[in-house]
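Bug: C-alpha cell stream looks shifted between consecutive jobs. Job 1:
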Amino acid sequence: MAVEVTKTAAEGDAVAEEILDRAAEELAAMVAAVASRLGFSSAAFPLAMAGGALLRAEGLQSRVADRLRMLDLDPAPCRSVESPVVGAVTLARAEAAR
C-alpha cells in the first residue's frame, strides 16, 4: 500500500501527501521518544530504517529525516536495512568497534 500512496502523492493527491506527512511525523516522534529514553540528544546516534513503508515508499525516509532535523535530532549513521535483525547486528558491531 505504501507504494500506491507514494505514487498517488507524486500525482498531486493532497490526501496521499497528508498520509505520507503524517507517517513521517509519527515515525520521527517514535525515534525522538526512543532517543530521549536512551539519553541521546542532538548528538549523532545510529538509526536503522526498516520495514515495508520506509523501504518502499519513495521519499518517506527523507521526510522522516526532515522531521527529525526539525526536532533537533540528526541520526548518524542512518541506514536502510532490509532486515531489522541485520541492521541491529550491523549497528552493534559498529558500536563495539568504537
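Job 2, same session, no restart:
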Amino acid sequence: MDEVYKLLKDDTEIVEKLDQGSVIRNFYTDQIIFITDPTSLLGEIIVEKLLRCCSQLKKLYILFKDTGGMTVQDEMKKYFESSAFDTLRNKIPDFYDKIVPIKGNLLAEDIALSGNDKNDIIDNVNFIIHNASANQFGDTVKSILQLNVLGTKRILDIAKDCENLKTFVYVSSVYAHCNEIDIKEKLYPCSADLKIIHDMIAADTENKNGLSKAALEMILGDYPDAYTFSKAIAEFIIDECSKKSNFRSVIFRPSLELPSYKEPIAGWCHKDKGPISGFIGITLGAIHTIWAQDKAIDFIPSDMCGNALLASIWDASFTGEKHEEAIVYNYGSSMVKPVTLRKITNLLENAASDRPSMKMICANYTVITKCYWLWFLLNVMIHVVPAAIVDGFSLLRSKEPTALTSYCEATRNLESVQYFLNGEWRVHVEKMQQLCDRMSETDSTLFYCDIRKFRWEDYADPFWNGLRVYAIDDPMDSLIEAKQQFYKLRIRHYISLSAVLIFISYIIIQFI
C-alpha cells in the first residue's frame, strides 16, 4: 500500500498498475458528466481527479459563471492554469479534448444557457454533480437563498429533461441539519417551502439593510444562519423531485473541508472564508485565543472528500432505484477519527514552528478555553488592546490607523464561527463505511476515502505545507530567512510576555 501511495506523484504509472482492478474507474468509462462550480476547492479536486484517473471518461461539461468579461474558452484556459492541474497537464496533455466548457448563471432562468448548450446537456449528460453553493460567511440572505435554493431548483428542472441522466448528485453539508445532534444518513423533514424563500428574498431586497436580525431569527427557527437553512430546503426539493424522476438522486453531505492530503498535490488548498482562513490566522500569529469546547470538530481532507463523492455515485448505481427517495451519504470524521480543535491546532502550530513563514506577524501560540468570559478577557488583552496601541502610534506618526479596522473585519463573522466551535454533533457515516467495505483493494487505493485508515498526525505536515505555499503564497525557498525571522519573533514574544507578567505582579503587590 505504501508503495502505491508513493506513485501518486506519477499518476500515469499508478493508473497503468491499477487499471485492471478498478471497478469505479471502469464505471466512468464512456460516461458524460456535468459539474457546476468547478472553481471551489472540492470542485477543482473533482475535475482534476476525473480527468487524470478516469481517462476513459467521454466528456466533462463544466459550468463557468458568466462574468461578462471573458469568453468561455478564456475562462477555461485561465482555470486550467492552476497548479492543481500541473500533473494532469504533464501526463495527459490532450485532456482538453474531453472538456465542454459551458457559460451560465444559476441565478437566471434556465441558468442562462444558450439553446445549443441546453440541448447538448439534455441529449448527452449521464451524471450531474451540482456543487455550486453560496458561502455562509459574507454572503447576503438574498444571495444565499437565490443560489442554494433557487439555483438548485433550476438545475433540477434541466435534469428532468435530460434523456440519458442516470444520477443527480447534490453537494450539501452535514451542517444542513445542525439543529440535530445526531446527523444520520437519512432525510430530515423541512417546514419551509419555495413560497417562503421567495418572500424572504423579496423582503431582503426591499429593505435597505436586508432582513432584520429579529425577522431572520423568527423564520430560521433552530437554524443558526441562512446557509444551513438553505441547504436543508435544497435537500427537501431534491428528494421531492427524486420520487417523480427517471434518475437517481444522491445527497452528498461533507463536513468542513481542509487542504488535500495527497492529491492533486499534497496540501492543495485555496485561501477562502472557511476553516482554512481561520487556520491561516492561527499559524501566522494573528489569532491567539479561541472560545471552543474540548469536543470533536468534524474536519476532512478535501481530496478524500472528492474521492468519497465519486465513489458514492458508483455505489448508488446499484444500491438505489429510480422513483425512490434520495440516497444520502455523510462524509465526516467525528464518529470514526475524532479530532478536537486543540489537537489539530497543536499539530499545525508545531509544523509551522518547524517550517515558519515569512508572513508570520507574531509567534504562533493559541489559548483555547471553554470559558466564554475568560476568552473575552484574553481577546481584549491580546487582540483589541494591542491593535488600539498600534493605531495610537500610527496617529502620532500621521498615518492612517488600520489595526482595529482589520481586527473588526477579521472577526465580522465571529458569532457564526463560535456557534460551530461550541456545538456538539455526531456525524454518522455507516453507509459511507459500507461503501468503503465494498470497494476493491485497487479502488480503496485509487479512490482512497476510508477515514478509518486516516491519521491526523500524518496529516499535519501536508496541511501546513499547503497553507504556506498555496494559501499564504510563501514558497519554501524562503525557509532559511523565515527561520531567522521566527527566532526574532519568539524573542520579542518572550520579552513582551515578561513585561506583562511584571506589570500584573506590580499591580497585585500594590493591592496587597
